[in-house]
Amino acid sequence: MKYHFYNANILSAGEIIKGDVVVEDNVITYVGSSIDTISDRKIDVNGNLLMAGFVNAHTHSPMSIFRGIADDIDLNSWLFDKIFPAEQKLTPEDVYWGEMLGIAEQVRAGITTIEECYFFYDKLLEAINKSGIRCRIGIPNNFQECEDGKMKEFLDSIISQLDNELIKPVIYAHSIYTLSDDELNYLVDYSAKNKLPMSMHMSETLKEVGDCTVKNECTPPEYLENIGFLDRKTTLYHCVHLDKDDIKILADYNVNVVTCPSSNLKLASGIAPIYSMLNQGLNICIGTDGVASNNAFDMFKEMFLVATLNKALLYDASIISAKQVIEMATKNGATALGFDRCGDIKVGNLADLILLDLNAVHHQPLNNIISNIVYSAKSSDVYFTMVNGKILYENGKFYIGENIEDIYSNCKKIAKRIFNLID
Ligand SMILES: [Zn+2]
């Protein structure tokens, strides 16, 4: 299939250019001024914006089912009193529909790649494969999912299914506080032997840092350094409470950091020191985390917060630019997740792209499109989402392998069963 997008404002290599983009099969084959070319479908972009899709570098999509059921409480109560008990009631089929709901919301909001961390892999993979979204999937979620001594067999079997352009694996160790030292060491060893990247929630709350310091006599980054976790290609989610020595350690190991500001604000975890980490050269990416904690997949909201929170904290509006934040939400995320040919509109890259309505009133007059993306745009401005050359969302219609009404009704039934909600 060959698509010819014409009459577009194109965000390419951090600049806006006017012209056309051609996609053949799953690859971008032309970016530049207006051209004549024979194609299967011509799309008049009508002066709107064509840009790379967003990379949501940290999420738990099936938690969409839990939207709104555990709000206005601290992270510890949220996780141990609300979320973990609710998760005990989930069946594999529930996770499938929750994943589908999460994917639908994400493609609607212009997200083309996700880092997915949840359990019941068969069902996660079924939904991800069916939908066509690009994904790095975290395995394993926990050690309870496999029988004693069967972890290697389990990991080997999952990883053998993940050798393609759209889905990659990452060894996901949930956190220092949910895994034992033995379990963490096992995962580090497995990752090293199989040359796999690793990921973890780290230094999300003051309590977590305090507990780690009491138990291990060192901060979480020091602990991860000591057990060899950082010797792997590592992605760490949150990184809210770090001192300058912690940041230096992360920089020494070229760690990828995923900041999730709306989740950190809503759970009152704190504000990540993005500016200090940027200064140390860390690759900063952006994630939404799960919908139980933020409560929507909206990279525009996250970008606004990344751009503004550190400015307010340091009383300096010049420390982070809109252009830097867009890179965090696209290219930096793609690099962290190992999708090197994604995250920008350029010839040879894989065709993960979105169209954004610039005719909406909150974009007028169109003085500065790059600034508008971060400070004015809304996720509802996205009207077209393509992943790997395939349209997954266009003008209210979803092409993700399931009917959107079926997704809604199944998730409603699941939420009702788990939380005894009254219709
Ligand atoms: Zn998370």
Would you mind describing this structure in some detail?
It is a single chain. The protein has 423 residues and is α/β, with parallel strands linked by helices. It folds into two domains: 2-52 and 343-398, Urease, subunit C, domain 1 (Roll), CATH 2.30.40.10; 54-337, Metal-dependent hydrolases (TIM Barrel), CATH 3.20.20. It has helices spanning 75-88, 92-108, 121-131, 151-159, 181-193, 206-216, 220-226, 244-252, 261-266, 274-279, 299-314, 322-337, 369-375, 404-419, and strands at 2-12, 15-24, 27-32, 41-44, 49-52, 54-59, 111-116, 134-139, 167-172, 198-202, 234-238, 256-259, 283-286, 353-356, 382-387, 390-394, 397-398. Strands 1, 2, 3, 4, 5, 14, 15, 16 and 17 form a nine-stranded mixed β-sheet that branches. Strands 6-7-8-9-10-11-12-13 form an eight-stranded parallel β-sheet. It is globular. Zinc ion (ZN) is lined by residues 58, 60, 201, 237, 289-290.
Within the CATH hierarchy, at the fold level, what is the topology of the largest domain?
TIM Barrel
Number of distinct beta strands: 17
The major β-sheet equals:
9 strands, mixed
Shape: globular
CATH C-level category of the largest domain: Alpha Beta
CA(first)-CA(last) distance = 45 Å
What is the number of helices? 14
CATH architecture grouping of the largest domain: Alpha-Beta Barrel
CATH superfamily label of the largest domain: Metal-dependent hydrolases
Structural class: alpha/beta
Average pLDDT rating: 95
* Helical amount: 25-40%
The tally of structural domains comes to: 2
- Kindly estimate the percentage of residues that lie in beta strands according to DSSP: 15-25%
Spans of 5+ residues with little confidence (pLDDT < 50)? none
Bound molecules: zinc ion
Computed Rg: 21 Å
